[in-house]
Amino acid sequence: MEADEVTIREQNFHSQVREYTICFLLFAVLYIVSYFIITRYKRKADEQEDEDAIVNRISLFLSTFTLAVSAGAVLLLPFSIISNEILLSFPQNYYIQWLNGSLIHGLWNLASLFSNLCLFVLMPFAFFFLESEGFAGLKKGIRARILETLVMLILLALLILGIVWVASALIDNDAASMESLYDLWEFYLPYLYSCISLMGCLLLLLCTPVGLSRMFTVMGQLLVKPTILEDLDEQMYIITLEEEAIQRRLNGVSSTVEYQTVELERELEKVKSKKTNLERRKKASAWERNLVYPAVMILLLIETSISVLLVALNILYLLVDETAMPKGSGRPGIGSASLSTFGFVGAALEIILIFYLMVSSVVGFYSLRFFENFTPRKDDTTMTKIIGNCVSILVLSSALPVMSRTLGLDKLHLSNNPRDLETKPSANGHQKTL
Length: 434
What we know:
- Helix content is 74%, strand content 1%.
- The protein is mainly alpha-helical and 434 residues long.
- A two-stranded antiparallel ribbon has the order 1-2.
- The protein is globular and about 90 Å long.
């Protein structure tokens, strides 16, 4: 009996070490990719090792951590779906035994924990730390700015706690609900995160239709359109004449007339941009012009139609059948049943639709008039805008699993089911802890 208990403890220890190693490697990859993305858009500052440079570097690391968590939250749902199909296809394969319900559930718990940490601690700290200067009367430096940031975080936490307390008293004037707010870890933070996820779902429902319509315009700008009944040489000749005319007018305008100079420079930039697009279209091959563009547009049309059709069918199903609600249905666990009637093909289609909805929501978010100023620009985005973009993407990514489950794109159940943690025989006949 003691030998069996030692073996079980060893298996549990090795399983936990394996899960922690996998989580660390996955997050390290996401962090590196996020760092390169942010540095691509971050405004290039002076390389002096002064106080502001240190503050910007710390805010950069915190923003990179937040963006990596957002990417992990987006990728977890497709990763869970594809893991379920792999376990169904190769149930006895020894080399994929690490891909189990315990690992997936641990990844979801870590994503939820880090999302709360980034949303309520790291990003407010990065913003206030970036804007802080130190209290008057204290010696200027990093310590003074950290002290001011911590004081601002405490005041912000008290303000949010008071607002939620008043809202809870107005909505549900019950002693039990008021006492539950004292439990900060078990009730208050999950409740607050659920409220933010609800706001993210509402934002997704607002941004996704806009993004679905904008995707055709965005792809039309990125790809080379077919040259049907167009003479590119003639257009290039006209654009070149316009550029030369504006350049002569710009050279003839006196430097004292600042308004005319600025307007002519803007016109010249627009003409140069058009000329660059025409040169790109002229250099593009016939396959790129006549095959890639129509294929991509047809693919976008098919994905949009399938997304709208699935959403309409699921909404109709929710209205007809009460058990179809996410909380009322018994969903399969990891590796127990396929999530789609069409098996691996249906799961792949769901993953494509999930990514398409996320990309469409991001495009729609930046297409809204209220968030147009948030759009990052290459090598010209301030650190404050980067923090705002990271928070916005985190809110959208945290709401993606909720919206996917509500719309019927996710039928996976990620609970602490003993069936996910039971031992199964591996390919070589030994017991393997899942």
